[in-house]
Each structure stands twice: as structure tokens, then as C-alpha cells.
Specification:
- By secondary structure, the chain is α/β, with parallel strands linked by helices.
- The protein folds into 3 domains: 3-138, Tetratricopeptide repeat domain (Serine Threonine Protein Phosphatase 5, Tetratricopeptide repeat, Alpha Horseshoe), CATH 1.25.40; 143-150 and 157-336, Rossmann fold, CATH 3.40.50.300; 342-413, Helicase, Ruva Protein, domain 3 (Orthogonal Bundle).
- Helix content is 54%, strand content 8%.
- The protein contains 20 helices and 7 strands.
- The protein has helices at residues 3-15, 20-32, 36-49, 54-66, 70-81, 88-100, 104-117, 124-136, 177-192, 194-199, 218-228, 238-241, 248-262, 285-300, 342-353, 363-368, 375-396, 404-413, 419-431, 439-444, and strands spanning 143-146, 160-164, 207-211, 232-237, 266-271, 309-315, 333-336.
- It has a 7-stranded mixed sheet with strand order 1-2-4-5-6-3-7, sandwiched between helices.
- α14 links the parallel β5 (266-271) and β6.
- α1 (3-15) runs antiparallel to α2 and α7 runs antiparallel to α8.
- It is elongated.
- The protein starts with a helix and ends in a 5-residue tail after the last helix.
- The structure holds adenosine-5'-triphosphate and magnesium ion.
- Magnesium ion (MG) binds at residues 218-219, 271, 314.
- Adenosine-5'-triphosphate binds at residues 173-176, 214-220, 314, 316, 340, 348, 351, 375-376, 379.
Length: 449
């Protein structure tokens, strides 16, 4: 195929603009000639006539991929591979795009899917690239802490906990300024300047406990803290370590603390810590007590010191927490994480809209309409808006930017999810507010004591 033939094809299309096979033929020919930009245009033109044609979408994704318009390519291809019977070649293009996005593990999986469906798709070059970048990532491959209590230690069905190296940092967390500041003071500074703390005789240690309604960024911030200081991150759901065998939960907990001490600097994050509470019906009182005691002595660093281990915890139900947790040197800072205020909501929107096709967005308008929305709710609005634009983009064959109205529209589909929590919290704050522990909740609800 040469330029003359391409021109002839274009003439032919002018004569019969609805001829989809002809349009596809032209676009494919442009890909072969490495004219990717022109190919992109032709696939889009063809899609205007046949918006549901999977093989045209695949061509468009490939044209994006070849131009390294990775996120545009991914958006299209992800829809294709989710289809009941995806074209085998879609997996191959997906693999290339994932490799561009530096997700080499996922790329490997996609490549294997392609080959499983059609052996002829084997591509030695792509394969070598995937292997190469997987090797590079070998160190970053998640390590695991195996939890014991099983017949066969090597059995795959054993529970385990990942050790992560998060790539997000504080700038990926909108708002939460007060909590970030506390984490800096109590956790990051001591790590960075241990000698100064020693000099002033200030004890390092203890953890920070966050509580509040669901979806307001507690887990997200804990992970970002690890990324912020380039530390390992271990997230432990208390229910993960509970084991019905006598003494095994305690041993699991000890193993986790030990591993964190070996892997310092390390952020050790305990989610749903209230599950340690003795007043749980599924744990015998005395058994629960043992686990709490184990937790407290690990926290206190009785056996081994916790230098370089940053301890964070979160709960939705601080009122179920054993008061012994709050002693000095343990979780002596307990922080309320409220739903994001207006500026925080704007920045959460910006964070989640980053690198998406955007039109003009009036953030203040969206923010005004989203009182009581959590961070997760704000993210849901972005997801809904993007989905609707994506449908439109595929129909029209070109990217359509997200605008203010799309986000406003999304508020009709997704309502805030924090209200229920405050109904419960209000009762505790009013009637069980020892030592003003929950004053922040009252303040947030604008209730005067
Ligand atoms: N402040 C924020 N900035 C950016 N994204 C946020 C923020 N808060 C929440 N999100 C988004 O919402 C998701 C859910 O938040 P997260 O899991 O941190 O909430 P949580 O407070 O731990 O909730 P739960 O109490 O249910 O565990 C996050 O993965 C993130 O995508
Ligand atoms: Mg959480």
C-alpha cells in the first residue's frame, strides 16, 4: 500500500461514506504505514457511522497506544476486554497499553489472556519487554506476612498480609490538614530527627488513632503517610488476625509487629481496631482480653523497641475501644476525621479528575451542592461523570471533556453516605462523652454543650 492507493481509498469512501469495511480497511492501512494520527482520525470517522463496532474501537485503541496516548487507549480497551467475548487481539493491545502505564504485572496477565485465546498472537518482542520490566519490579513485588495457625504452613489457602510500598503521598489526599499536621509532628518528624527528640528528652513512640464516618480518607491517608516518607506499609484488618485457635491471634499479632520492626521504616496501620474490643459477642471475654493485652504490650514495645515503626489506627466506632488504649505512649492522640469541608471537597475533586479530559469546571458550584459528602462520595461523583462522558465519547468517536454539569448531574445519582454515622455518633457525644472525648463531633454538628 502506498500513498496513491490511500488516496484512491479516500475517494472511494467519499462515494460511499456508509461503507464501514472500506473505512476500516483505510484506517488499518494507515496503521501499517505507521501514520497513527491519521489512522486515529479515520477510526473516529468510522465510529461515527458504527459506534458499537468492536473492531473499530480496537483499532482506535491501537492508534492511541502507538501515539502513547495511554490513558485514552486504556479507557477504550478496558471496555472491550470486559465484554463477554472480547477479541483476542484486544487483550494484546491491552497488554501494550498496560506496559506503557508501567503496570507490568497486569500487562503480563493481559498478554497471557491474548495467547490463551489465540496462539498466533505470540509476540516475542512484547514478551521480552514485559519480562524485562517485571524483573525490574521484582524487588517491588509485594512481600507477604504469612499468618500461622494452619496445618500446612506452605498451604496457599493460609491467610496473609501484604507489605506494600505505596506510591501516593500527602498531595494525593485532599484536605485533612489537621490530621496531616499531627502525623507530621508525631510521626514523621521523630522519624526524621531522632537525635533532636533524644536531645530534648522527648519520648518517641505511641500511635495516632483516627475515627470518623466511613469513606473520609482514614485508610487513604495512612497509606499516603507511608508513601510520604518512603516507608513500607502494612495494613492490618483486625478481623484478618483473629483466629479461633487458642493463642493464635496473639501470635499473629506478634508476627506482624516483628515483621514491621524488621522492615523499618514502616507504617503499621490497624484498621477497625474497635474489633479488638472485649464487648464483642463472637469473642469470649477472656480470649479478647488476652489479645488486647498482647496488643498493648506490643505497642509499649515491651519486648522489642518500636523505633522506626509508625503506628496508625482507624475506627468507625471509637466508643467500643478499650480505654486502656488511650493511655500515654499508646494511642494518646485521637483525631476526629470529619467529612471534607468545601476547600477539601474541591481538592478531592481535582485529585480524582487529574489527567482526565477536562473542560471548564466551576469547582465552587459543585462544592456547594455536596455538603455532607465524604471523600469516597466525591470520588463516586467523578466516576459517574466520567462514565457518562465515556459513553458519549465512544458514540461520537472523540474524547468529550468532563464539565461542571456532569458532576452536578452525578449528585442526583449519588447521595452522601455520612449521615447515618452521625446519628449514632451524636448519641455517644451527648451521653457518653467522657473527658470531652467527642467534643469535636459536637462541634461539627454545631451542638453547644
Ligand atoms: N481526602 C481524600 N482525598 C482524596 N481521596 C479521598 C479522600 N478521602 C477519601 N478518598 C477516596 O475515597 C476512598 C475511600 O476512602 P478511605 O478508604 O480512606 O476511607 P475511610 O475513612 O478509611 O473509610 P472507612 O471508615 O470506611 O474505612 C479512597 O480510596 C479515596 O479514593
Ligand atoms: Mg478505612
Amino acid at each position: 500500500m502506498d500513498i496513491n492507493e490511500i488516496n484512491e481509498l479516500r475517494e472511494a469512501i467519499k462515494a460511499s461514506p456508509d461503507n464501514i469495511p472500506l473505512r476500516k480497511y483505510l484506517a488499518n492501512a494507515l496503521i501499517k504505514l505507521k501514520k497513527f494520527e491519521e489512522a486515529e482520525l479515520e477510526y473516529k470517522n468510522a465510529l461515527k457511522h458504527a459506534p458499537n463496532n468492536a473492531s473499530l474501537k480496537l483499532g482506535l485503541a491501537l492508534a492511541f497506544c502507538e501515539q502513547e496516548k495511554t490513558s485514552l487507549g486504556l479507557v477504550i480497551i478496558e471496555e472491550l476486554v470486559e465484554h463477554d467475548q472480547p477479541l483476542p487481539r484486544a487483550w494484546l493491545v491491552y497488554a501494550k497499553l498496560l506496559l506503557q502505564a508501567k503496570q507490568s504485572n497486569a500487562a503480563k496477565g493481559a498478554y497471557e489472556n491474548a495467547i490463551a485465546l489465540d496462539e498466533n498472537l505470540k509476540d516475542a518482542f512484547l514478551e521480552s519487554q514485559i519480562n524485562l520490566s517485571n524483573q525490574k519490579n521484582e524487588e517491588a513485588e509485594p512481600q507477604k506476612i504469612k499468618l500461622g495457625g494452619f496445618e500446612d504452613e506452605d498451604a496457599d489457602d493460609g491467610k496473609s498480609i501484604d507489605i506494600e510500598r505505596p506510591e501516593i503521598s500527602f498531595s494525593d489526599v485532599g484536605g485533612m490538614d489537621k490530621v496531616k499536621e499531627e502525623i507530621r509532628m508525631k510521626i514523621i518528624h521523630p522519624l526524621e530527627h531522632p537525635e533532636l527528640y533524644k536531645m530534648y528528652g522527648k519520648k518517641i513512640g505511641g500511635g495516632l488513632l483516627m475515627y470518623g464516618p466511613p469513606g473520609c480518607g482514614k485508610t487513604h491517608l495512612a497509606r499516603a503517610t507511608a508513601g510520604q516518607v518512603n516507608a513500607n506499609f502494612i495494613s492490618v484488618g483486625i478481623s484478618d488476625i483473629l483466629d479461633m485457635y487458642l493463642g493464635q491471634s496473639e501470635r499473629n499479632l506478634h508476627a506482624i509487629f516483628q515483621r514491621a520492626r524488621d522492615m523499618k521504616p514502616c507504617v503499621l496501620f490497624f484498621d477497625e481496631v474497635d474489633a479488638l474490643g472485649a464487648n464483642r459477642s463472637d469473642m469470649k471475654q477472656s480470649a479478647g482480653r488476652h489479645l488486647i493485652n498482647q496488643f498493648l504490650s506490643e505497642l509499649d514495645g515491651v519486648e522489642a523497641d518500636n523505633d522506626g515503626v509508625l503506628i496508625l489506627a482507624a475506627t468507625n466506632a471509637p466508643w467500643h475501644l478499650d480505654p486502656a488504649f488511650r493511655r500515654p505512649g499508646r494511642f494518646d492522640r485521637i483525631l476526629f476525621v470529619p467529612p471534607p469541608d468545601e476547600p477539601a471537597r474541591a481538592s478531592i475533586l481535582q485529585i480524582h479528575l487529574k489527567e482526565k479530559p477536562l473542560g471548564k469546571i466551576d469547582y465552587s458550584k459543585v462544592v456547594k451542592k455536596t455538603a455532607e459528602y465524604s471523600g469516597a462520595d466525591m470520588k463516586a461523583l467523578v466516576d459517574i461523570a466520567i462514565e457518562s462522558k465515556l459513553d458519549e465519547a465512544i458514540r461520537k468517536g472523540k474524547p468529550i471533556p468532563v464539565e461542571t454539569k456532569d458532576l452536578i448531574q452525578a449528585t442526583k445519582k449519588h447521595k452522601p453516605t455520612t449521615k447515618e454515622w452521625f446519628q449514632t455518633a451524636k448519641n455517644y457525644a451527648l451521653f457518653a462523652n467522657e473527658a470531652g472525648l467527642y467534643d469535636d463531633i459536637l462541634k461539627y454538628l454545631k451542638i453547644k454543650k
